[in-house]
Amino acid sequence: MKCDFADSLLQGYFDGELSGRRAAEFERHLRNCVHCATELVDLDLLRDRLQLGQLYEPATASLRRKINAPLHGIAIAPTTAASQPRLWHWLAAATALLFVAIVLGRVGPRLSNDDYQAELAGEIVDAHVRSLQPGPMAGIASDDERFVKGWLDGRAGFAVPVRDFANGGFALKGGRIDVIEGRAVAVLVYERNRRPISVFIWRTREPDTSARTGSRQGFQWVDWRKRKMEFCAVSDADPVDLEQLHQLIDSSA
Amino acid sequence: MSELGLEDRERFEQLVLPHVDAAFNLARWLLRGRTDAEDVAQEALLRACRFFRGFHGGDARAWLLQIVRNTCYTWLEKNRPLELSMEFDEELHLQTCATPETLAIAGDDRKRLTVALETLPPRFREVLVLRELEGCSYKEIAAITSIPIGTVMSSLSRARRQLYTALANSSQGACP
Fold first, then answer.
1. For the domain with range A108-252, which CATH number is right: 3.30.200.100, 2.60.40.420, 3.40.50.2300, 3.40.1190.10?
2. FRET partner for A136 with CA separation of 20 to 30 A, picked from A119, B77, B143, B156?
3. CATH assignment of the domain containing B25
4. Would you list the DSSP string of A107-127?
């Protein structure tokens, strides 16, 4: 026998999630409905059995060990601009994050749907915003292409195309390593009219694409793939500027 | 690179780290294994650490579990895409109920419950785990899974029915 109350109220009543009025309504119904009464007993038995089965699995000791290291490592520097970054902390964090990236074997983003792309763009914009926070930059500040490239290549694990476009109005300011979707990515920092632009670069197996653009929280982003690398430039600069930088990078890659 | 200040770090340790067990438990049940759960829970905690500045109080457990859940689904999409489209198949379950393996474990109710729970599609498994093992309210489950409260209730209803069926089949020990 099927009871209309069963689906709409029974679960809520069993879980103690009904308001007083609704619970009273259900209890009145319960006096005359064998179906719901039986179902309620079954639900109770099932819950008891799940409790007795002790299915809850607390974190393993090795997970606790692992998270303590990188979590402390991530908290690398106080946010006051006056303090110095602690190099060993940064290295510990970078190593841990690279380890995670390697363990998970992440090779390329799948921009197969809008949700995923929105999430990815969100992470990249967040990463750009974090880089704007006051405090020492966990990276290298230099306008020397070769120096920045040398620093990034070893940490990113691939040959990062580093070019200074100061002549084109985009001065190279440095580079850093960030983590997007659990994978270490190289970030080039440019400056245009005193506004910073982050260009995130990582390896991908996906085919080349033309530029896709979007905006989020007041920041613009443009994303494209070329020669097994994905680029995503983010800034609050004029979208025209981003497009210009995209052209410069694209033609030099 | 994300940098938590001393104050943020202390807050993170106070608010988020107490829920490491909850994070691992959810990942273990969504991924159906400890080894994968360890990796994914670790990644989720790193993400939580990086996003911590965006956490402005409220339910830290729900906030962390939301990140764990998203990280698990991303991992499943990449590594086991078929599992996400899995539907509970009563027929299939009946056909396989009498294998030597299921008969061998029939004596141990914990194992039987584990197998039964793992046959449920992830979206039903997660509401059961959150409700029955983690003790979350409907509101918390809705926040963690980003589904409306009404859907939480109907998902729980279907999940319990499916679990009940799976258990009934496995306890028979042989196909009818």
1. 3.30.200.100
2. A119
3. 1.10.1740.10
4. ------SHHHHHHHHHHHHHH
Angle (deg, nearest 10), helices A114-131 and B34-51: 50
- Chain B residue with Cα closest to A70: B46
How far apart CA B99 and CA A64 sit, in angstroms, is 37
Q: Provide mean pLDDT across the span A4-18.
A: 82
In this structure, the answer to whether residues B98 and B47 fall within a common structural domain is no
Q: Which of A17, A54, A90 to mutate to test the interface with B (most CBs of B within 10 A)?
A: A17
Residues in contact with A225: Cβ distance below 8 Å, sequence separation at least 6, in sequence order = A204, A206, A207, A208, A209, A231
C-alpha–C-alpha distance, residues A126 and B2, integer Å: 10
What residues of chain A lie within 8 A of the CB of B154, using their CB?
7, 11
Nearest residue, CB atoms, A15 vs list B12, B29, B131: B131
- Quote the domain boundaries for residue B126: 86-172
Q: What part of A 86-145 touches B (C-beta under 8 Å)? A: 90, 93-94, 96-97, 100, 103-104, 106, 110, 119, 126-127, 130-131, 133, 135, 137-139
Q: Do residues B168 and B90 both lie within one domain?
A: yes
Q: What is the pLDDT of residue A135?
A: 47
Structurally, chain B folds into a number of domains equal to 2
What ipTM is given for this predicted complex? 0.86
Whole-prediction pTM value? Answer: 0.55
Q: Which tokens belong to B175?
A: 């196909």
Counting one residue from chain A and one from chain B, the pairs whose CB atoms sit within 8 A come to 156
Is residue B1 situated within a structural domain? no
B17 and B63 share one domain: yes
For A97-152, the pLDDT digits (tens) are 554 444 443 333 333 445 556 677 778 887 777 777 654 445 778 888 988 898 88
Contacts of A94 (CB under 8 A, 6+ apart): A155, A177, A184, B1
Domain coordinates of chain A in residue numbers?
4-52, 108-252
Q: For chain B, give the percent of residues with pLDDT over 90.
A: 51
In the structure, what pLDDT confidence band is assigned to residue B144 with cuts at 50, 70 and 90?
very high
Q: Give per-residue pLDDT as tens, B15-44.
A: 898 899 999 999 999 999 999 999 999 999
Is residue B146 included in any domain, yes or no?
Answer: yes
Write b or e for each residue in B127-147: b if 16 or more Cβ atoms lie within 10 A of its Cβ, otherwise e. Answer: bbbbbbbbebbbebbbbbbeb
The pLDDT, as a whole number, for residue A70 is 46
The per-residue pLDDT for A219 is 83
CATH code of the domain containing B134: 1.10.10.10
Interface of B with A in 51-80 (CB under 8 A): 51, 53-54, 70-71, 74-75, 77-78
